[in-house]
Structures are given as structure tokens and as C-alpha cells.
């Protein structure tokens, strides 16, 4: 039996009419959707999880055979991509080991446009390999927001980025809190009236603050069907999967195209891993410091694991206290004196100008060991 991890931004898929009722307002959409689907489809078992995807331990994702994504942000996709690719292992010839591959099917829509893609870690390009496909998000100069707003969006971002901190210093803004969003809307409306700008609505406020793009049911139906078909082909083997990026545009007629992108063999996420050489005396604390200073990684506040064991965890506090003594222990000792092995580091790294949670695979080799010299030369 195959197990699927399906991460959906349900509002984006326009399921409201089928799954939700007035009495469901205020409830978890994942839990309500799972209940309704199981009522309608006999024999299906859905276990909903109402939390942030980063809140789950990495081991949670290891139980699934295929991961299907319907997420609504680049950061969320990047995180799940790094998790799935983190399970990937390579042999001595840098060929991916089939039993460690967790395929992903990713879908997304933007108005009349959409895409469905299949990611086979180690074979096809992963999300990071083609991160350049996504245009940079629109950003407004703060001077424009503060001095010369010209659009409704400027007024909303002024309330969101400037006014909130002025009135609520030290209080983080929660885009999912209805009271917080109502406050932003009210302030944006006042700002718009002051400058004679029209068009500020509560719906637009939500869209600007949460970067929501209006969904079109027909586009969502086409893309979700494409994703379901690719997932079916993956677990049944009934047909060859799309290779490897399908795009749909329904703006003027119907245009569907499949593009085969090329995998980046030096990708930090789906590649064999970034090589880091250490002295046998280097401690775990020194290793974590190296991750911060490494020009390709730049991982801050890193937690480190090896073969499922926590070497050091930044959080929760109880795990940080338990693993803190390891910081002064040489990595060579913590890694059971293996001259060459793989570890995983989770921390904050820069992505598209933002600090986001990232997981990286690292190949650790210890200087002066014969086995490490052999392995490094073979993988070079």
C-alpha cells in the first residue's frame, strides 16, 4: 500500500463548494475536508494534520512513498523539496539509490495559468534546480509607501509594513488572525481616503498581505487532475510520467506544453551533498560555525543529524539542553570515527532575499584518513 503526503492550500483549489458548510467556519479546513471526502468516497483513509509543515519532524515525511504538493508559496515548496531530497542517498559512483528516492508531484495555479511537474530526486531537476523559473515577488519602496502612495496596494502595505509596528511595537503580525487583518484593512482605508485613492477592500487587503492571487475553478480542476494522473502513474507504473514540467494557459483558448528541464548536477539540495573537510579534532560547535561561514551554504542556527540521530538541535528547548554537551565533542567521535559520511543540517538560509528554513545534505570527510582520500577522489 502506498502512502501519500499531500500538502494542499485548500482555498487555492476552490474546494469550498464541495467540502465546506457555513457551520464549518472557524474549523480546520484540513480536518473538515478529510471528513467530507471520506464520507463521499468509500474505502479511502485520510489523516489530516492541522499545523505548519515545518512543525513536523523529518521522520514524519519518511513514511510516505510519494509527496503531492499544492502549496501557495515558493518558501513552502522549497522546504518540502529539501526534505524529500534529504532522504536521497548516493552510491560510491554518485548514482542515486532507488530505495531512498521519494518522488514529488507539484502543482500550482495563477489565474488562468497553471503547472504540474514531476520531481524524481537525483534524476529530474528538483525545485531548487529551476528556482529561476519563478519571477521575483513585487516589492514596494518604503519611501513610496510612506510619502507618495499611488495605489490601493501601497496603502495596504503601508498599514502592514509601517503602521502596524508603530502602533503595536514588538507584537508580531499574524496574517491568519482575522482581527489583525481587519485592523490592517481599516488603517489602509484611512490612508487611501487621506490621499484620495480608491479600491481598498477587505478582499484586496488579504490578497496583498498574504500574496493571494484569485483562483479560477476551471484552471484548478485541470491542474489538480494532471497532478492526480501523474501520482497515479508513479505508483502504478501504468505509463511514463510527464518529462518533466507541464504548463497550462487558458487565457486565450487552451495552450498546454511540456518542457524538459535539465537537472543541476551541482544542486545543493538534490545533489550528492556539499563536501566539507574537517580535522579529526574539529568539534560540533566548530562545524556549525563553518556552516554559517560557508560561501554556498550560509546556514545559521543549524541543527545537525546523522543517520536519524540528533547531534545538536536548536529547538525545542528540551532537545537543545539534551544535545548541548555534544557541541564540545569532536565530530570524528560523534560520527563513530567514520572517515567519510553524510550528515543533514537544518537551519535558516537565504532564498530569494529572504531567510527561510532550509535542510541541506553535507558530505563530511576527515583529513588524514585514507578512506576519505579515496572517497573524495572518486566523487570529484
TrEMBL record:
This protein's record includes keyword Transcription: no
UniProt entry tagged with the keyword Nucleotide-binding: yes
GO CC field: cytoplasm; nucleus
Stored SUPFAM superfamilies: Activating enzymes of the ubiquitin-like proteins
UniProt cross-references to SMART domains, sorted A to Z: E2_bind (SM01181)
E2 binding domain residues: 276-367
Keywords of the record: ATP-binding, Ligase, Nucleotide-binding, Ubl conjugation pathway
Gene3D superfamilies: NAD(P)-binding Rossmann-like Domain, Ubiquitin activating enzymes (Uba3). Chain: B, domain 2, Ubiquitin-like 2 activating enzyme e1b. Chain: B, domain 3
Function field: Catalytic subunit of the dimeric E1 enzyme, which activates NEDD8.
Family: Belongs to the ubiquitin-activating E1 family. UBA3 subfamily.
Stated name of the protein: NEDD8-activating enzyme E1 catalytic subunit
Protein species of origin: Panicum virgatum (Blackwell switchgrass)
Amino acid at each position: 500500500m502506498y502512502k501519500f503526503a499531500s500538502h494542499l492550500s485548500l482555498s487555492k483549489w476552490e474546494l469550498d463548494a464541495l467540502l465546506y458548510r457555513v457551520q464549518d467556519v472557524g474549523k480546520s479546513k484540513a480536518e473538515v475536508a478529510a471528513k467530507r471526502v471520506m464520507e463521499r468516497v468509500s474505502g479511502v483513509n485520510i489523516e489530516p494534520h492541522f499545523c505548519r509543515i515545518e512543525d513536523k519532524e523529518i521522520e514524519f515525511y519518511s513514511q510516505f512513498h510519494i509527496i503531492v504538493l499544492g502549496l501557495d508559496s515558493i518558501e513552502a515548496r522549497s522546504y518540502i523539496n529539501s526534505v524529500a531530497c534529504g532522504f536521497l542517498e548516493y552510491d560510491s559512483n554518485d548514482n542515486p539509490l532507488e530505495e531512498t528516492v521519494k518522488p514529488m508531484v507539484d502543482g500550482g495555479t495563477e489565474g488562468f495559468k497553471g503547472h504540474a511537474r514531476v520531481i524524481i530526486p537525483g534524476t529530474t531537476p528538483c525545485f531548487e534546480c529551476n528556482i529561476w523559473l519563478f519571477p521575483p515577488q513585487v516589492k514596494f519602496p518604503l519611501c513610496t509607501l510612506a510619502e507618495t502612495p499611488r495605489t490601493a496596494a501601497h496603502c495596504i502595505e503601508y498599514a502592514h509594513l509601517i503602521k502596524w509596528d508603530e502602533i503595536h511595537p514588538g507584537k508580531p503580525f499574524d496574517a491568519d488572525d482575522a482581527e489583525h487583518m481587519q485592523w490592517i484593512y481599516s488603517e489602509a482605508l484611512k490612508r487611501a481616503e487621506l490621499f484620495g485613492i480608491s479600491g481598498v477592500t477587505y478582499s484586496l487587503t488579504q490578497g496583498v498581505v498574504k500574496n493571494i492571487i484569485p483562483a479560477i475553478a476551471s484552471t484548478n480542476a485541470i491542474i489538480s487532475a494532471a497532478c492526480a494522473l501523474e501520482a497515479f502513474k508513479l505508483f502504478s507504473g501504468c505509463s511514463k510520467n510527464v518529462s518533466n514540467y507541464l504548463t497550462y494557459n487558458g487565457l486565450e483558448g487552451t495552450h498546454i506544453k511540456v518542457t524538459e528541464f535539465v537537472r543541476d548536477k551541482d544542486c545543493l539540495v538534490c545533489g550528492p551533498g556539499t563536501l566539507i573537510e574537517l580535522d579529526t579534532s574539529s568539534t560540533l560547535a566548530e562545524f556549525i560555525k563553518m556552516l554559517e561561514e560557508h560561501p554556498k551554504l550560509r546556514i545559521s542556527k543549524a541543527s545537525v543529524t546523522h543517520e536519524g540521530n540528533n547531534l545538536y538541535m536548536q529547538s525545542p528547548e528540551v532537545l537543545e539542553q539534551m544535545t548541548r554537551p555534544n557541541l564540545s565533542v569532536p565530530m570524528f567521535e560523534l560520527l563513530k570515527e567514520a572517515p567519510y559520511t553524510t550528515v543533514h543540517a537544518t537551519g535558516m538560509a537565504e532564498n530569494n532575499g529572504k531567510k527561510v528554513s532550509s535542510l541541506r545534505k553535507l558530505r563530511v570527510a576527515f583529513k588524514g584518513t585514507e578512506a576519505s582520500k579515496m572517497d573524495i577522489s572518486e566523487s570529484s
